[in-house]
Amino acid sequence: MPVIELRIPNLGESITNVTFSKWLKPDGSTVAMDEPLCEIETEKANQELSADKAGKLTWVAKEGEDLEVGALFAKIDTEAAGSSTAVPAPAPAASAATEKPAVETAAANYATGHPSPAAAKILSEGSLNPADVAGTGKDGRITKDDAQKAVENKAAAPAPAPQAPADPTRNPKPETQNALNSRNERRERLTRMRRTIAKRLVSAKNNTAMLTTFNEVDMSAVMALREKYQEAFVKKHGIKLGFMSIFAKACATVLLEMPDVNARLDGDDIVYHDFADISFAISTPTGLVVPPIRNVESLDYHEIEYKLKDLAAKARDGKLSLEEMSGGTFTITNGGIFGSLMSTPIINEPQSAILGMHAIKERPVAVNGQVEIRPMMYLALSYDHRVIDGSTSVTFLVKVKELIEDPLRLWMGI
After folding, report:
1. Tens-place pLDDT, residues 56-84
2. Disulfide check for 380: which of 118, 291, 356, 384 has CB 3.0–4.6 Å away?
3. CATH superfamily of 114-152
């Protein structure tokens, strides 16, 4: 048949609906086979859909529309593939070598100045207008890198020269007065990922007996160890030793000693694991994701660092696969990178516990009867009391604290 239908593909067993985010090609344009046509948003990541055949594109779906898997989103007239690409006769003032097909030019104009979803969020947070950013992507589209560079350039730009103070005896201009008294509002639809995050957080609060226990850890020994061996570590492995891999190894060690913290509730059963698949909370422009690293107990520190770096890069670019997003027996989240001093993290269902790391702050502490200034971090363990007793949660956190404060025990396995 000359006209083919394009439908939302099956993206995994857990995904039944998607949000149609953005068209990448204009309605009525000629597209090539495998050329990206649009972006859709799932509960876990954004994804591009491409043309199955070359031809003339006809839109069916609307941007922002929720669609079920299998729903029709576009049609392609394959018979129009060749006819629309013919180069029109050049105008008298232009040579044939400089002319472009009309459809191709329309597509380029459509893409020019249009940011990708990730780029749009970055520009919005940086208070930048897409019209002021030059796109380097296909057909002049604004990429995530373009947006990040624009925000960095804005931050690095010199501050404007101060203006003379206004005469307080004069009334402000009407436009100034209106700006000061503005009561404008704007409404934006929640992204599919944000809607999914909201449902899961509410579910965790409503369906678990969640409590949080706290402790604090002296980071002196870990910081001294990193400072002493960082150069040799980088020279051998090509990557830096971070705090996260050390905490991951400490948690994995204690999780295998205390299987209740590593377990999950399944109906009337408790499922225990003899492995530690630790999920790591990663902030992205579209929301928080928690991809796991599997069998952390069996990995070396540099292997954890490489996997963390890879997952973080994929998460920021929206390229995590469904397999990479699924699973996990325990979660670690680090609010310290944003400056958080203390928090009560919410359990990542169906897991039963989550460790919250926080900012390292120098504080006076008592050491052997003397007051000393030490780099301290508050730790928080939120847990499901249906699975984990209070004494178990406190003991788990104490054991993690002991390993962090004496990291050689981790290397020695004692």
Report:
1. 999 999 988 889 999 999 999 998 765 44
2. 356
3. E3-binding domain (4.10.320.10)
Indicate which residue of 237, 273, 302, 385 is catalytic.
Answer: 385
Q: What is the DSSP letter of 368?
A: T
Check: CB of residue 259 under 8 Å from CB of residue 345.
Answer: no
CA distances from 243 to 145, 219, 222 (A): 27, 10, 8
389 belongs to the catalytic site: yes
DSSP string, 159-177: PPPPPPPP-TTSPPPHHHH
| Residue tagged active-site, from 132, 145, 389, 406 | 389
Residue 106's pLDDT band, with cuts at 50, 70 and 90, is very low
Query: Which residue matches tokens 């995050």?
Result: 197
Q: Is the peptide bond before 345 cis (omega within 30 degrees of 0)?
A: no
For the segment(s) 3-111, the CATH number from 2.40.50.100, 3.30.420.40, 3.40.190.10, 1.10.3720.10 is 2.40.50.100
> Is the pLDDT at 141 greater than 60, yes or no?
yes
